[in-house]
Amino acid sequence: MKSLQLLKKPKVASFRRAMWSFASSLVLSVPVQAADVTIFAAASLKEALETVQDEFQEATGYSVVASLAGSSLLARQIELGAPADIFISANSAWMDYLEGKELLVSGAREDLLSNRLVLIAPAGKTLPIKSVTNAEILALLGEGRLAMALVEAVPAGIYGKASLINLGLWQQVEPQVAQTDNVRAALALVAAGETPLGIVYASDARAEPRVTILAELPLESYPHIRYPVALLNEESQAAQRFFDFLAGPQARAAFVSAGFSLISLD
To answer: Are 222 and 159 in contact, with CB atoms under 8 Å apart?
Structure first.
């Protein structure tokens, strides 16, 4: 990773922390146990990040805890003053939002990972299809629902809606979309057989044996998926070391194994 030029946090940080102490009672995704490093990360990173955490803790002795949710929710929590040291978003927009609020450590932001969108169904219920077309989607949906993360706020839902629009499918399927707070909730609906179809990341589908991938959505139908990572706490040596660890061979191998693609950090 690039060397970091650390700047002092704005004076409003203490006010945001005070606001957070009030608002956190309304939020469920904040880690309850103390740790050397607190990570706020997109829900789709769950399994890969667990592996990276374990390897980092073994290598350094620092304890790590992760709060996983939709990137939009996590960004809002950070804005309120949530005590996060590192943020990994599933799109650039929410990282840009926090950067605009001057909540990132200067020079400590990188594009880390990429992903792909897939159409899924409950395992054993439907055979893979050759392409995502109006006829195929409508036939598979029937009167059922299409599980997606929030299409106006959560990155997986935003990407998925963009794909369906570009494929000429959105207008037909919109009335049947079941929106969820994050992509893992959409995955869970399909895995439980509550919906016949869902759109999730390829890494999500790999993590859940109760779903099958019917098809990949065409890469050209949605914006390139990027997971940026940023350091939020300039004073924590442990957070700095974890931020650097994410660029190392152990972490990168864990992400690839979980189905993510790497973005060069040179």
So the answer is: yes
